[in-house]
Write a structure and sequence with these properties.
The structure is a homodimer. Chain A is an alpha/beta fold. Helices cover 33% and strands 25% of the residues of chain A. Chain A is built from 11 helices and 17 strands. In chain A, the strands form 4 sheets. Chain A has a 5-stranded mixed barrel with strand order 6-9-7-8-10, surrounded by 4 helices. A 4-stranded mixed β-sheet of chain A has the order 12-14-16-17, covered by helices on one side. A two-stranded antiparallel sheet of chain A has the order 5-11. In chain A, helix 1 (37-45) links the parallel strand 1 (3-8) and strand 2 (54-59). Chain A binds chain B through residues 17, 301-303, 306, 308-309, 321-328, 331, 333, 335, 337-344, 346-347, 350-351, 353-354, 357-358, 361-365, and chain B through 17, 301-303, 306, 308-309, 321-328, 331, 333, 335, 337-344, 346-347, 350-351, 353-354, 357-358, 361-365. Strand 15 of chain A pairs parallel with strand 17 (339-344) of chain B.
Chain lengths: 366, 366
């Protein structure tokens, strides 16, 4: 069994106007059921991590929403960062707090806002990763690429360690399309989905080696975590911690030292980065139309969505109003209480440009 | 000078969800300014008809809205039909009431929900029509066709009477595309826009000849109109009146009798039948985008409409929410407090199918 850590941050600007700085995507039911993404993440991890061993790391803004959406998660397992200090501080805090409670623990870290189609296969892969972690490796779960995606980093795999476990020789930044195509063709690369499984003692040792200041700060915070001093120590030390990603701070150096390995994940992973992607992963009607969210149900006989001669649309009805599309192909329609978006699916990536434009204008609806 | 009659009826289902049974298109600001269509209609007629000689004929549902939008129109000039009895009863009621007040009057009848681009030219054409009416002709203002439209009836013109006035030999039903193309090619046909100008005595005489029952009922109602008996007589007689259009009841027979003539109208007429048409007639930005209605203005620096890399769109922001379009071409987006519509401009005619579908489902949002 694992200790599960779920970093919950990032607003998902490509999912505007649904996802907002104040209402990020992991709090939304983008799963094809009434479950929100973070609820689905916790449910997916239940076979490998008891709820008492499941942690969410988040900022002050979203902690109340998370607490309400996960009523059975112990209060003390919601780790609230006083301010954003990037992923190494977030994940490192969880590792240090868990080590304080169980020095032998194996922890896995999984984003709050990803979707997995095949939950059983996901659990199998995690058990393989756990086996690697128990051997003292910093394990990643890489995603078997389905196309030459330029929006993700890649893991360059090396020799086989045991069974499906292979070493990771290098972490690669987001590539150009040519490079990504070559990566996929070679069969040696996996998508870096920021899923990690490791013994907390192994991770903390590597953190101490590469980022001693960050390590020492986190250890001092963790020592105070289950005491009356938590707030004071956290408030004192947290703002001084280096702001750095876990890949850059620890994983790249650990890979160079031969400490990182991976198991390939082929469980239908999706990072729900934009509405087009969301449309690909959720169940569609016969014409390929996807209606997102639990409000798509009939409300006293009144449809929330009326599609007439339309195909391939992604409709997100989130205001209770009727959304009607007539003769539309491959278009996204997102309806929220204060903003509506219409955009072709192949422009879904550019939604963040709209958010940038609104931000420039000082518009609060972002 | 004329007496102006404005029949205000019909909900405009192709303008759903903006236009509703309870909130028809003539009450909406679809003019490119803050004016509603009926306000623009009254303003357009001001050079030829005093406000005291201007009448609106409407049903019980819309009378309050009309009264509020036209605060200077005398109460007694809003003629309220107890129930819909088609256009001959509506226009005939106005003719009979006007004849009661001024037997020599020339009246013109103009729909409440049409747009005219060149108001000065419109007035010139009306003066020509008035001249024909004073000679004892039932005048129509036909619209010089700009394309072989199959959605309108046509007037078949005959010999020249005087100046621009020509006889109308026949009223033609909505034609097929082939027939419409031949009509336009021949130069002998005008669109029938249901604009009429006539002496009330001439019209009522022709009504008596062709529809004696309707004529007698309307005369009895008109006699009671400015008395304490109005409600009683109206309530008694109105429900018994034949339900028939003025074209079918009077104009076709009058044309056969050589009593109908026309002046061609070349003043940029548009019947605002659907959102595509509306987009053609209202001012557009450099990319051909049209924003309809007075709420398109900035509200404290917050845009109501945000168009990014979009062209040829028709956006109707009527809920106060932000409407954002990214990468859209030639599409209609209509945003109202309880429904939003997305549809390509070339499918604008089919919006009524959505309304039919909602009606079948018993949905009240129509």
């Amino acid at each position: 069994m694992l200790h599960a850590v779920i970093p919950a941050g990032g607003s998902g600007t490509r999912l505007w106007p649904l996802s907002r700085a104040t209402n990020p995507k992991f709090l939304h039911p983008l799963t094809g059921t009434a479950e929100t993404l973070i609820q689905a993440t916790v449910a997916r991890l239940a076979p490998v991590a008891a709820l008492g061993d499941t942690y969410v790391v988040t900022g002050v803004a979203h902690a109340p929403g998370i607490a309400r959406q996960l009523p059975d998660l112990p209060d003390s397992n919601i780790l609230i960062e006083p301010s954003p200090r990037d992923s190494c501080a977030a994940i490192g805090l969880a590792a240090a707090v868990i080590a304080q409670r169980d020095p032998e623990a194996v922890m896995g870290s999984f984003a709050a806002d990803h979707l997995v189609r095949d939950g059983a296969r996901f659990v199998e892969v995690l058990r393989d990763a756990e086996a690697g972690a128990r051997r003292g490796l910093l394990m990643t779960v890489g995603i078997t690429p389905t196309h030459p995606e330029t929006g993700y980093g890649y893991l360059q795999c090396g020799k086989t360690v045991d069974g499906p476990i292979r070493t990771v020789d290098e972490f690669k930044e987001k590539p150009s399309l040519d490079v990504a195509t070559e990566y996929v063709r070679s069969g040696r690369y996996l998508w870096n989905a920021s899923m990690f499984v490791w013994r907390v003692d192994v991770f903390l040792k590597e953190l101490r080696r590469q980022q001693p200041e960050l390590h020492d700060g986190l250890i001092r915070i963790a020592a105070a975590w289950d005491t009356a001093d938590r707030d004071r120590v956290l408030g004192e030390i947290w703002p001084t911690l280096p702001k750095i990603s876990v890949d850059y701070a620890v994983m790249e150096g650990a890979a160079a030292a031969g400490l990182v390995a991976t198991v390939p994940g082929d469980f239908g992973w999706n990072d729900v980065g934009d509405f087009h992607t969301l449309g690909d992963v959720l169940p569609a009607d016969d014409a390929g139309n996807v209606i997102v969210g639990d409000s798509a149900t009939l409300d006293g006989g009144k449809p929330e969505v009326l599609l007439h001669d339309s195909a391939g649309t992604v409709v997100v009805p989130q205001s209770g109003r009727l959304v009607a599309a007539l003769g539309m192909r491959d278009v996204i329609v997102v309806d929220t209480p204060d903003a509506v978006l219409v955009c072709p699916r192949d422009r879904a990536q550019d939604v963040k440009k709209l958010v940038d434009e609104l931000k420039e204008r000082g518009d609060s609806r972002i």
